Amino acid sequence: MQSSTVVIAILLLASAAFQWAKNRSISLVGGTRSIRNLHSLPAYYGMYVALWCALPALAVLGLWHLFGDRVVLGMVLAQMPGEFQHLPADQAGLLLNDIRNVVSGAVPVEMARPAVVAAAQQWKAISDQSAIAGGLLSLVVAIAVGFWALRSIRPELRARNRVERIGEWALLASSGVAILTTIGIVISVLYEAIHFFHFVSPIDFLFGTTWSPQMAMRADQVGSSGAFGAVPLFTGTLLIAVIALAVSVPVGLFSAIYLAEYAARSVRTVVKPLLEILAGIPTVVYGFFAAMTVGPLLRQLGESMGLTVVSESALSAGLVMGVMIIPFVSSLADDMITAVPQSMRDGAYALGATRSETIRNVVLPAALPGIVGGVLLAASRAIGETMIVVMAAGLAANLTANPFEAVTTVTVQIATLLVGDSEFDSPKTLAAFALGLVLFISTLALNIVALKVVRKYREQYD
Amino acid sequence: MTNSVPTPSISQQRVAASLKRRYAAEMRFRAYGIAAIAVGLMFVAFLFTSIISKGYSSFEQTFIALDVDYAADTIDPEGKRDHDTLANADYQAVIKASLRTQFPDVEGRASLRHLYGMISNSAEQVLRDRVLANPKLIGTHATVWLLADDHVDTFFKGQIDRKLSEADRPISDEEIAWVDALKAQKRAELRFNPAFFTSGDSREPEQAGVAGALAGSALTLLITLLLSFPIGVAAAIYLEEFAPRNVWTDIIEVNINNLAAVPSIVFGLLGLAMFIQFFGLPRSSPMVGGLVLSLMTLPTIIIAGRASLKAVPPSIREAAFGMGASRMQMVAHHVLPLALPGMLTGTIIGMARALGESAPLLMIGMVAFIVDVPHGLSDPSTVLPVQIYLWARSPERAFVERTSGAIMVLLGFLLVMNAVAVILRNRFERRW
User: Fold this and answer.
1) Is A182's CB within 8 Å of B259's CB?
2) 3-class SS at A408?
3) Chain B partners of A281 at a C-beta cutoff of 8 Å?
4) Residue-wise pLDDT tens digits, B285-312
5) CA of A187: which chain B residue's CA is closest?
6) How much is the pLDDT for B89?
7) What confidence score (pLDDT) does residue A439 get?
8) Residue A42: how many CA atoms within 13 Å on its side-chain side?
9) I want to staple A232 with a disulfide (CB 3.0 to 4.6 A). Which of A189, A307, A397, B188 is the partner?
10) Same domain, B302 and B257
11) What are the structural domain ranges in chain A?
């Protein structure tokens, strides 16, 4: 029995229950004329019964799906011949995989061991039965509970309050999704990272200076010992982020100052959206732009000046990333500058200061904490940005501060380690999660500090 | 009071002397601002001209007109005319024969291979479809416009310099001569290329299209919208209208703000470890992609939703309470309808961001080479930005214009979405 059919059936039952309950509530008080004797409007009685009909049944169905597989598995394993009982954990896992492969058809029946084939057939039979049983059970629950709720309708039943209570719980649960997401991120990244630290010590990972995430297939293989020292990745990330900030902070800040303090309203309404186009362009487009246009351009420029600039230089990725962050910096700086009260400017003008002197000596110092917060947020953006560096920066982990050379970043390595096949037991894959943990913690710290700085500043003038 | 001109005091002299310097500083400062804006705008212009100048040509493709002889003894020597024979006939041979009649002087194995390589290998398919649709064609002659191979196309569009030496360019001297001959006879021309919008990915640049990626993007965004809009609106309503001010709601608020700033690739790690590894959902599927993107979009929608709920004046709420409405009725009947346009605007902007997102989707395996257009939520598929990434990595010269073309399609969609958001805001924005 398909679970989607069951869900549709339950929903149909619920909508029928809605009508029944609505009519019943009306007939209980003797027709629509004396509806005022009901505590709530008839539709609320309908909703009340419909919710009772659908929610427990859907919960049963969901639980059956979550745990049914495991129960089936236990039943199948229990019925296998004696030598398959009490296997050590790893062999049991292999056996399970074999059975799964036969069930899904990935391994043809002729190639599998007879015991496995038997188990697979049994699995199929039992899980078909289990699906039917689960579907039937949830339908029975829907009918039984719905019927009970229908019988429990009385004119004095506080149907509206109860329905609204359920609604409030649903709203609360929705806002809990954000928390669940954070917990999910922390658990999944932390779990695999801890797993990784069984293979490589955290000290070697954080302070090692060689990064070559290949693992030897055989013990005697040459040159693939696997080194997981992430320092070159951190310096590469910082180098690119610094270049990006060196582009975006001056440009963003000065354009914000000009737009907020000098520009006529008509100029502002045209230029601001134009600059904000930069924020709406997908990062993959910037990546393509950096790799196809800026990289070769910088190399030619370097050649003409007698410099060796590689095509995948840190400069091209950082430059393009800086362009991407310009609107981010400028809109934050704009907010901060406009938040400085006019009276402070007027005071400076009254003392005979020119506009630029007012801005430099009064407005900017007052807005500085907010601007610093904005720059920190921009830095966290630059550190976490992926597509530009994946497409325009290199893969080689060079420990260098030369912007004309190729460097690699944390995000590039995460992407390259995880794209393609991913076995969850090799340090190579797990290393990506350890890098992800570092990335998550560092951007989180930057954000928390930045938001604190911004908030503290805002309270001063509000 | 004397009417003699007062001699300026020392401080006045100093001020007068410094004024020039100060005004110069003022002008400089202003110039920095203008320069910064100019730099920003220049980048916008540079980016767009670079993409458009590379990409506009991908909407056109070189076609070559061949006089095809649907010879009965090649296609169906036994005269059966049934579906199987016609579907499995050697249309390659038909095309080769037509090419040989077009250029009767070409001899030698290598030259013939070059000659056959001028036509895209999708041409067989075209002939097969024509014959299957109308078996009466067999035994007749017809002029058919067939897709040229990508190196011919790149040359024809002028993207390969013919002055380069033969070894440095992907097209040989004799091929150039043939293309010139075809052009002189008006048998080779650029035509609108519908396949770019109707076919999936391909290893052959001239056959590659964005249809598969568009379908994948549509399915992924559908999931994203269905999950993130209701949950986001509900969370915004809870936080703004119901939540008591306590530690828990503070934690939720801080959490949402932080989630909005978590790098997108971390969401990819979450998707890989949770949805694929733990829950065993299918890799590369729009389902998982949509789940990951909806978690990413949620904070945007919640923040926008709260802002538009805040914009509804408290008097509306008090009036509803005054009429005896419950809190839920007040929200559902009065506040929500007024806040909905703002929420929709935020949602569209969030969707636009999700449409352009690619990093987390790399993690969950949506980077596979997939030819078929996906039809279901668990079919392996890719999305438009990832398709751009895949094409950008392809070594063939002809994929550069494909990539730029796909970027233009993507930017077109983003433009439409943002325009809708702006119109919605301008139309329904209310000042109280």
Assistant:
1) yes
2) coil
3) 47, 356, 411, 414
4) 899 999 999 999 999 999 999 999 999 9
5) B270
6) 80
7) 94
8) 20
9) A397
10) yes
11) 3-157, 227-461
